[in-house]
Amino acid sequence: MTGAPASFDVFAVSPEGLEVHFQLSGEKVYAESRKLLAQLVADGFTPRTQRAGRGSQAPQGPLCEQHGVNFRQYAKDGKTWFAHKQGDGWCNQPTKKEQAG
User: Fold this and answer.
1) What is the pLDDT of residues 45-78, one digit of tens each?
2) Is the N or C terminus of the chain more exposed, i.e. has fewer CB atoms within 10 Å?
3) What does the domain layout of the chain look like in residue ranges?
4) 3-state secondary structure the chain
């Protein structure tokens, strides 16, 4: 008697804010899932933090009016800013000075 093949579900959010779901199954599911996770991280995807009935998703930043996606907050060396990946580069939230004029 053989058991059901192993399966693994991956939920992630693209840099543009789109949710994706991958379902892997088979004998080599562990190795394949490790490859998939590494590639998703390399491509700028983040884990989907919300699970049905548990916790809540991390709050999103303000909306980028130019691209229609939410910014993500970043912090380094005591400074914080909002940005999102766009194509091969990044889009940063305009500062209040830039917005004023």
Assistant:
1) 887 764 443 444 445 678 888 888 888 888 888 8
2) N
3) 1-51, 60-101
4) CCCCCCEEEEEEECCCCCEEEEEEECCCHHHHHHHHHHHHHHCCCEECCCECCECCCCCCCCEECCCCEECEEEEECCEEEEEEEECCEEEECCCHHHHHC
